[in-house]
Amino acid sequence: MESFSLILAIVVITALAFDFTNGFHDTANAMATTISTGALKPKIAVTMSAALNLVGAFLSVEVANTISKGLVDENGIRPEVIFAALVGAILWNLVTWLVGLPSSSSHALMGGLIGATVASAGFGAVHGDVLVTKVLLPAVAAPVVAGLAALLSTRLSYAIGNNADDNATRKGFRAGQIASAGLVSLAHGTNDAQKTMGIITLALIAGGSIAPGSNPPTWVILSAGLAIALGTYIGGWRIIRTMGKGLTDLQPQQGFAAQTSAATAILASSHLGFSLSTTHVVSGSVMGAGLGRKGGTVRWSTATRMAVAWLLTLPAAALVGALAESVTGLGDWGTALVAVFLVAAAAAIWKLSRREVVHSGNVNATDADEPAGVVTTAIAAVTPPPAGPVADGLTATIPAPAALPTPAPAAPATDPAATV
What pLDDT does residue 377 have? Predict the structure, then answer.
């Protein structure tokens, strides 16, 4: 490694900060179903996931090369551009974590990089073919493929254990779920840690520290793996709650099917160099597993909010990245201003999160009932409550008529002659 400038050091530190947010933002991808079904205690689950994320970071560099060599033109990209991209990605990760939505850290990073690059060098600096084939198409196909695989796997799992003892079946699938959760963690480290490796490598190329076309140096691989492992250990409990309880109710058979399907899709995409969103894959597999069990349901209100967040991720991060790049282009004081804004925004989001703290002790304590739809609410507003005792938590929508006053007793009749 050659000389480091101050801006390059800032970019590397910011990239590792993004990697940290990626870790706690995506812990739910590996461990939410395992925690929700009781296969592992929350703290043990995140510790196991963190260790396997670190191991996974050393398995491949194909995704890192997609980012550092394929998505944008290396020539003419300044370190400030990459810093601006990271600002957009970090802020989107923090905002979606605050509201408990499992959005894609990968697409936040891609969006920030695209927006900052366009603001700096124009649309021609973005390689559209790579964006479509290795980012956008996998984003659409991955949750569908993983969901169908999980649906079929869930049905197969129940069919295999149909005549077996229920307790033995649950124990067996819980053990399998722990193994599959470990596989997802390994796959997450292989796929997501590489994105930070790619960003740091691109920054090193832009800063002249390494030659164009270089693979990530060993220290980059190690630091990215450690950052994502630490973030995973912290645990993004808000998103774990949404993924584990808010989307559907899972039994061990479903958790095993969902995680196995997700791990297979993620590892295959990492080998092919696709910058896949592990959040999209795992969410799709969880919904598929929810539909695969007879009588199982998916809470479509939560799924809809997640889908909206997915659609907004790329453009929102791109917009913030472009704005940040416009400010950093004003000089060193502009870069300092963006850095101060990032720290202040992160501190404000953290303070807001303290209003309702979600931690390992209450991550499963949530009301998972599907909210009433518009039609149901409208009907309830005009329909009198049924006769009989009212269920707990329900109130009448039409007040009962007021009781009529009791008539006063008639005065006793008197003899007319007595009044004369």
Answer: 40
The pLDDT value recorded for residue 413 is 47
CA atoms within a 13 Å half-sphere pointing along the CA-CB vector of 154:
26
Q: Using pLDDT thresholds of 50, 70 and 90, give the confidence band for residue 367.
A: very low
pLDDT by residue (tens digit) across 161-170?
Answer: 777 677 777 7
pLDDT at 328 over 80: yes
- Which residues, listed in sequence order, are joined to residue 72 by a DSSP beta bridge? 126
Q: Which amino acid belongs to residue 132?
A: V
pLDDT in tens, 194-214: 888 888 888 888 888 888 778
pLDDT at residue 375, as a whole number: 33
